[in-house]
């Protein structure tokens, strides 16, 4: 007879990381006592789906309640206590004090192992008028309900912050027929991305009626009888019936701090590669932790649902089968967002992040369709790749387009995790049939372009030069060049089929930059000229990627 006392595993926080850890723990140990503490009324709900219920894409609220305390008890024999908050951790005695939100009654719970998964709370900075009830943040189902109810009677909506959540909310309010102003203190939407990779999405937002106030932050709010007015730093006033703040999150680490656990520079709970805090019997996972970055091998904090779930699973593995637990590989920060018909996302590091860190890098931008161009429905996609010029290792990628963005980001995220190089990207064998892809996928094309750059066959530039000594050559057909001119005063139009015969029109003593819509034709032209003795660079990604996302590759057939 086994008389070993069952391990008691107490989990504080019942959404992504906490619920994942509890479920994995039960699958690994049927005898363990697993107690899940959640301050709110819901556990294991789909918080990433909240904007889509507000906009009506998700019809049933119940669909977001993935599990309930009752289903978790029935399926996994978990002791789930909602409406209960942890107030004190007594680490020497290995116990935590919890309190009922409704009654205020308290009790002490002993633990053998403790997991902190408190998450992060939306930022609500101290500024004039911030307490107006028409100003909302979005974290819980109850927040969602309040915004959903307020939207029913709203005409004008202001969304403050143009990150991932801000874009999702702006899209959903437009779907509801609202007039939307999207305010962002940076000079671009999606500040984590390089700005050229946001242009197509900016164009799409404007096309659907979203008013963008970029490079203009929020200074405060003015309460009126009918509306609240957003006071921007520029002096502009934006009236709104409803305001949603989406300017970032703050980790909820007060409990950990009061317990004396080590915190990172930005206040996140510091953990090791197995999610252990500075106390080996206390773990932490999810949006409140500081872990390490996979690319830079430095501390980082990335509040994303996918990593939170995997971190929770790792905690259970390390507690219940430590010999088999695999260390956390590091954060890639892979993320994606959709606004109407355009998506954009990233994995790993962007060019501006690499540049800010002072690391060596090269970058290339390529354009193609998400599947074979001759098959109906082909949609444009733009892919930007960064790599280490010394090793060829991939540092990061960004993609934007109307279809297939997720697939390409996932492929490169896998390549990043596996330590693949630009040569490996060029050689990847990816699934191909005309409805799904191309014989040379855009991921392969990015690899080709990167290898060509390394080998000196391609010398890319990201912007059209302003130096009058540089000859800018538009190699598109004359009709296309006239309809969508290159934004450069001295540009010459020499279509590629004419370039071999007309190359004498160019001065071989002056450098040349070739330009086209997508970047392919300009590369072909650069190869023609370089083999004729010219010093040539090519506009990477073409006009569509770096200047005007609406630039077509060809004129429509009448």
From TrEMBL:
Residues 466-552 form the Rhodanese domain. PROSITE patterns: RHODANESE_3. Pfam families: Pyr_redox_2, Pyr_redox_dim, Rhodanese. Its EC number is 1.8.1.14. The keyword Signal does not apply. Its cofactor is FAD. The keyword Cytoplasm does not apply. GO terms for molecular function: CoA-disulfide reductase (NADPH) activity. Keywords: FAD, Flavoprotein, Oxidoreductase, Redox-active center. Belongs to the class-III pyridine nucleotide-disulfide oxidoreductase family. PANTHER family: NAD(P)H SULFUR OXIDOREDUCTASE (COA-DEPENDENT), PYRIDINE NUCLEOTIDE-DISULFIDE OXIDOREDUCTASE DOMAIN-CONTAINING. This is Coenzyme A disulfide reductase.
